[in-house]
Amino acid sequence: MSPRAASASPAGAGGSNATTRRVRTILNRLRRHFGDLVPPRAADPLDELILTVLSQHTSDVNADRSFAALRSAFPRWDRVVSARTERVADAIRSGGLANSKAPRIQAILQEIRDREGSFDLSVLRRLSDGEARDYLTSLPGVGPKTAAVVLSFALGRDAIPVDTHVHRVARRLGLVPQKASAERAGQLLHDLVPDGLRTPLHVALIRLGREICKAPVPRCRQCPLRDLCPTAPRYL
Length: 236
Description:
Elements: H1 3-7, H2 20-34, H3 45-55, H4 60-73, H5 77-82, H6 85-91, H7 98-116, H8 129-137, H9 144-154, H10 164-172, H11 182-192, H12 198-211
Helix pairs in contact: 2-12, 3-4, 3-9, 6-7, 8-9, 10-12
C-alpha cells in the first residue's frame, strides 16, 4: 500500500474518520484498556466452521453448548450427514434456529466430503488467504463473516470478522458508513485496516461492543475512545 493510500479513506468508507492512522490509534487505546487482544478460541478448521454456523444469532455460550451436544449425539461427522435432519436439529436445539442450521450443517459436511474424500479442511492451510476465503464461501450457506472467523481463529490468518458488535461499533466510530451492510463493512474494514492488525482489532471491537458500546445506548462516559468518536456527543 502506498503512503498516500494508507493515509486516505478507501472508496466508500466512513469519510475523514476512516484512516489507517486512526485505526492504529483506536487499537492502541483499546489494547491499553483491555490488555492482550487474542482470538477467543483456536480450533480445527472444520470444528471452527461448524461452531461458527451454530453461533449465528445466539451467544457463544449457547453455541458451545450446541456444538458439544452435536458431537455427543454424533461422535463422527459421517453420522451427522447420514442422520435424519430432525435428529440433528434436536441435538443442536439449545443454539436456536435449529431447523435451519441442521440442514445447512449437513450440506456443508456433505460438500466437504465430496471435494476432499473425507471430513477434513486441512487443505485450507496450503491455500492463500484469498483462496481459502473463496473455498469457504463456496460451501453451502457459508458467508464472508463465517469464512473470516475460520481464517482468523482456526488458521491464524489476518482477517476481521464482522459480527453484530463489530458492525455497530465500526459505524459509530465512523470507520464505515452508517448504512453499510455487514458484508460491505467487512470489505471496507479489510481494505482499511493495516496487515497484521485485523484480528486484534476484531477482538478489540468485540469487547468494546459487549462491554461499553452497547445497543441501543452506549456507555460513552466509560469509553476510552469517547474523544475520537463522532457518535459520543449524542450521549454525553
